[in-house]
Specification:
Elements (H helix, E strand, L loop, with lengths): L7 E6 L6 H10 L3 E5 L5 H18 L4 E5 L14 E4 L4 E5 L9 E3 L3 H6 L5 E4 L4 E9 L2 E8 L1 E4 L4 E2 L12 H12 L4 E4 L5 H11 L4 E6 L2 H5 L1 H7 L2 E5 H7 L5 H15 L3 E4 L14 H12 L4 E4 L1 H4 L4 H17 L1 H9 L8 H16 L3 E5 L4 H8 L6 E5 L2 H6 L6 E5 L6 H14 L8 E7 L8 E8 L4
Parallel strand pairs: 1-2, 1-16, 2-3, 3-12, 5-6, 12-13, 13-14, 14-15, 15-16, 17-18, 17-20, 18-19
Antiparallel strand pairs: 4-10, 5-9, 7-8, 7-11, 8-9, 20-21
Helix pairs in contact: 1-12, 7-9, 10-12
Length: 473
């Protein structure tokens, strides 16, 4: 089943979308990758979802991606005697390690690393940025703050430190257990939350050891500051607008979204735009006009994928949310303005034979109006280079590795098929034309542009471009 769009859709699984029938309905509505949110649910819950996705994959004979999203180090305050307090601007409020229940004068902050990082003038945001504190004095295990923006504060609310790099690993003990579970059950992508520095990615890579691809969620100002190095160390990026919008001024987020998308595209790494894309559809059967515009903007920017969170995981209209996102994406990609933007934003190919062949494949495909560009790949790098070009023709990726095919479900315009590698030129053309027909990408009389590496079976060595004609069976 060929999607008549290039941008991919990531749908989060949860209580509203865990049954095999519902997962199939989400896929048929347009979901390409399923996200497992390890901030919620037990391992048994996630295992049931993994098995349902893999069973559906077998039924359809089509690769489906699984993304394990790790919770990361959630910083939270302790509890209050009355369950909540009202903080008044100008009042003092103490944060310390004391486990006693708090009141209007202070509360526990059970994170010694955070308290050790605070300095006079440091600002803390509480409850998704609704309340703001400024540090006045600090000591061993405590900080005296002044309430800058007050309001109601209840138990276990989150804490954000937009101006501080906290010496915490991006992987908590819970994350390590979740990661081991996810890898043992064959997820294709691992999303690392609250990345602060490049070393966070190095640590995660050391644990993953190539068993899944690594996606860095950009939701901290410190990650934005070292974005280029983070892009180098990861396999994909996510514009995680939830916490990014808490830790930075809201009006800065749209510009950062465009910056992150363009940086990832320039590097040839898939990039996902996420958070509150169709938020109103958690409770309503149709989105707001602003949400439609938001989804469309991400597609116009050239994002590889757009993501649904609570809309598909716990909302009242999960299938409708996917169908709506699919409809918006199709409409945008039919717009001549969209194609004009994609054509205007080609990145210069790197000085390698593989990049030269891939750039030429796009140009040849446009000139002869090819039905598809066919790539042979082991690692997926050839298909990602083809996607980086944002060609007018769909990309058919042939790979002998199911793991590679599953990972490429996140990449713009790539239709991945598991197939044996070619053994010679004649076999290369025969497989390409047969699978292009079978994938509904081409019909007899159409032309294909085929890229591969010679000698066949040599990874990372794209050096051949051929034009093939699809013959009648």
């Amino acid at each position: 089943m060929h999607r008549e769009r290039n941008v991919k859709i990531v749908a989060t699984l949860g209580p509203a979308s865990s049954s095999p029938d519902r997962i199939r309905a989400l896929f048929e509505a347009g979901a390409d990758v399923f996200r497992l949110n390890f901030s919620h649910g037990s391992h048994d819950d996630h295992l049931e979802r993994i098995r349902s996705v893999r069973a559906l994959e077998q039924q359809l004979n089509r690769p489906i991606g699984l993304l394990a999203d790790l919770q990361g180090p959630k910083l939270r305050i302790g509890r209050f005697k009355a369950g909540a307090v009202d903080l008044i601007p100008g009042n003092k409020f103490r944060l310390d390690l004391n486990a006693s229940e708090g009141d209007e004068t202070g509360v526990q902050l059970p994170h010694p690393e955070v308290l050790g990082s605070l300095k006079p003038g440091t600002e803390l945001l509480l409850d998704d940025g609704k309340l703001r504190l400024r540090v006045g004095h600090v000591g061993p295990g405590w900080a005296e703050t002044e309430v800058v923006v007050g309001g109601r504060l209840s138990d276990r609310k989150g804490v954000n430190l937009p101006d501080t790099v906290v010496p915490l690993s991006a992987l908590t003990p819970k994350d390590r257990a979740d990661l081991a579970f996810a890898l043992a059950h064959g997820v294709d992508w691992v999303a690392l939350s609250f990345v602060q520095r490049p070393d966070d990615l190095r640590e995660a890579r050391g644990l993953i050891q190539g068993r899944a691809a690594l996606l860095a969620k950009i939701e901290k100002p410190s990650a934005v500051d070292c974005l280029d190095e983070i892009v180098t160390l990861c396999d994909a990026l996510m514009v995680a607008r939830g916490d990014l919008g808490v830790e930075m001024p809201l009006q800065a987020v749209p510009g950062l979204q465009k910056k992150i998308v363009r940086t990832a595209r320039r590097a040839g790494k898939p990039v996902v735009v996420a958070t509150q894309m169709l938020e109103s559809m958690i409770k309503a059967p149709v989105p707001t006009r602003a949400e439609v515009s938001d989804v469309a903007t991400a597609v116009y920017d050239g994002a590889d994928a757009i993501m649904l969170s609570a809309e598909s995981a716990s909302g009242d209209y999960p299938v409708e949310s996917v169908r709506t996102m699919d409809s918006i994406a199709r409409q945008v990609e039919r717009d001549p303005l969209y194609r004009g933007i994609m054509d205007a934003e080609h990145n210069n190919p790197e000085n390698t034979p593989s990049d030269a062949i891939t750039a030429a494949a796009r140009q040849v495909a446009e000139t002869i109006q090819a039905a598809a560009i066919v790539t042979y790949t082991m690692s997926g790098s050839t298909a990602l280079r083809a996607a980086r070009e944002r060609p007018r023709s769909p990309i058919l990726c042939l790979t002998p590795l199911v793991e590679t095919a599953r990972r490429l479900t996140l990449a713009w315009g790539v239709n991945a098929v598991v197939a044996p590698d070619a053994i010679n030129f004649a076999d290369m053309i025969a497989k390409a034309t047969a699978l292009a027909r079978a994938s509904d990408l081409a019909k007899p009389g159409d032309s294909l542009v085929v890229t591969a590496g010679v000698p066949f079976g040599s990874p990372g060595n794209t050096n051949v471009l051929r034009i093939a004609r699809v013959e009648a069976i």
